[in-house]
Amino acid sequence: MYKYPVAEPEIGEEELKNVVEAVRSGWVSSTGKFIQVFENLFARYVGVKYGVATSNGTVALHLALVALGIGPHDEVIVPDLTFAATINAVLYVGAKPSIVDIDPNYWCLSPSSIREAITPRTKAIIPVHLYGHPCDMDAIMEIAERYGLYVIEDAAEAHGAEYKGRKVGSFGHVSCFSFYGNKVITTGEGGMCLTNDKELAEKMKILRDHGMDPRKRYWHNVVGFNYRMTNLQAALGVAQLSKIEKFIEKKRRIARLYAEELSSVEGITLHPEMSWAKCVYWLYSILIDRKLSISRDKLAEKLRRYGIETRNFFYPLHEMPPYRGYANLSYPVSTDISCRGLNLPSSVKLNDKDIAYIAQKIKEVIKGF
Ligand SMILES: *Cc1c(COP(=O)(O)O)cnc(C)c1O
Description:
- The chain has 369 residues and is α/β, with parallel strands linked by helices.
- 37% of the residues lie in helices and 14% in strands.
- It folds into two domains: 13-101 and 108-241, Type I PLP-dependent aspartate aminotransferase-like (Major domain) (Aspartate Aminotransferase, domain 2), CATH 3.40.640; 244-368, Aspartate Aminotransferase, domain 1, CATH 3.90.1150.10.
- The chain has helices at residues 13-25, 33-46, 57-67, 85-92, 111-117, 137-147, 198-208, 231-241, 244-262, 296-304, 332-338, 352-367, and strands at 50-54, 75-79, 96-100, 122-125, 150-154, 162-163, 166-167, 174-178, 191-195, 268-269, 277-278, 285-288, 311-312, 341-343.
- It has a seven-stranded mixed sheet, sandwiched between helices.
- Helix 1 packs antiparallel against helix 8, helix 3 packs parallel to helix 4 and helix 9 (244-262) runs parallel beside helix 12.
């Protein structure tokens, strides 16, 4: 247990009240009033018409791919720097992932690398809004339109983030969110697909519920899944959603404090926020420049001794055994950034003093070298 954890949920009385109500009602599985309420409120929050709640964010991605009819012989473009769930979902449907490099300025997949990766078999792009920073959605949607591709936004790390004043998750044909315990809001485990396409939403609901015909019980026209969210999870989610603006403001405050404290430190690159972006800083992150005499890993190890948890950036997908075979481009940017990036404590529970202390320790450790 760290005194200063990277990400920890803040769960209060409202959550408890809702969950107790759900338990007392007896509706503990995937029927019950909180599910639809959560779907509707979250969809409205993001500015999308339909929400389909799922048991986690990974299956939300899988569900979206299946509903869009993506399968063997199709190719799906994913960024090299992301959590493995993004590419795993592509592999679940038997499609071929096409891994592309990221932009050095904001760490999300780069539109020019997408163009390089497109083949006649490309069917979809999965932009990942990494660590709370939005992708360049205008550029991505333009490419998608030109080549007739689906866009499935992986917004698991970016609830409430904005691209040119519009929330991420409202650009793609489908967007997928996660409500895992360390995400911006949580339902314990949980996820959601959002779409403006009514038919697609219906399809996802059927696939989520074993593929059962909604008008004819126990009649199955397709092979579906059990990817439903429980009423207990949704009860938690409704209460969390009512606090989302507070959480995001807190994350942005944490980011501002880190930036103030660390901007003068030579050899550190701060978490970016492009002029067109509102970043929610899911995990406030820094890059350790190569000219510093202390390595990223050494810094992390020293901070650990003060109870400060940090996390290394994701490994580039193209380096790991299950995905190596899908690396057919070059990845200079993600390779470089992955081994220099460090996520700092970003829990909404941390106060100004905590952030000042953490920043102080970072400065001390760096100076000591
Ligand atoms: C967390 C996360 C997921 C998966 O969400 P789970 O709810 O943990 O299954 C997918 N993509 C990204 C980028 C994530 O960070």
